[in-house]
Amino acid sequence: DVKVTQSSRYLVKRTGEKVFLECVQDMDHENMFWYRQDPGLGLRLIYFSYDVKMKEKGDIPEGYSVSREKKERFSLILESASTNQTSMYLCASHPDRGVAETQYFGPGTRLLVL
Amino acid sequence: GQNIDQPTEMTATEGAIVQINCTYQTSGFNGLFWYQQHAGEAPTFLSYNVLDGLEEKGRFSSFLSRSKGYSYLLLKELQMKDSASYLCAVRDRRGYQKVTFGTGTKLQVIP
User: How do the pLDDT tens digits run along chain B, 111 residues long?
Assistant: First the structure.
């Protein structure tokens, strides 16, 4: 079974803090994704990475950066957290092989910025 | 870009059949996914359609019409545990790893 893990289930941070969200997958997938999910807005893509050290902006990259130094790990960084970044953050991974393959999601991190 | 529309909420009775619709307008198309998401949990994969027609998997079926930009998810013999949000997601041909999600349909199953 594919396993995608995220470093925290719940996180509380203060405005202006630097926040790191970590995601690790154990299936050697090439592609990894960070989404945020908000009521009424659905899942929105922040950044994705299709290879080590490669990254592409998603639909809402402002205020975020990412790092992929190793294939299994994809980090999302909030350089200076703001209250409008309070959200559920979901990481996913996907193999290059097989168009019909689904994305596999981690359990999510619920971030509250005070 | 992609535009994906789903009803926000639906209610159905235990044991009944419910159809959740999804319409999309996209610049490219390379497959449509349906996911189930229980409250506070991650989405889990239900189905994938890339060709027109119906795909059946047990109590769940998914239909696609590419010419109409339309899909539906059909849930039969509804159970209380089917209460969840159902997400439609479209893969853009331009970068096949990337998908765009609809806002989801929250289904409540009542006794």
Answer: 678 999 999 999 999 999 999 999 988 888 999 999 999 899 999 999 999 999 998 999 999 999 999 999 999 999 999 999 999 999 876 556 778 899 999 999 999
Tell whether A112 is within 8 A of chain B (Cβ). Answer: no
CB B43, CB B33: distance < 8 Å: no
Output the CA angle A44-A46-A50, nearest 5 degrees.
115
CA–CA distance, B99 with B48 (Å, rounded to integer): 12
Residue B108 belongs to what H/E stretch? strand B105-110
Is B48–A43 a contact, with Cβ atoms under 8 angstroms apart?
Answer: no
Amino acid at A5: T
Count other Cβ atoms within 10 Å, centred on residue B77. Answer: 11
Nearest to B30 among A48, A50, A99 (CB): A99
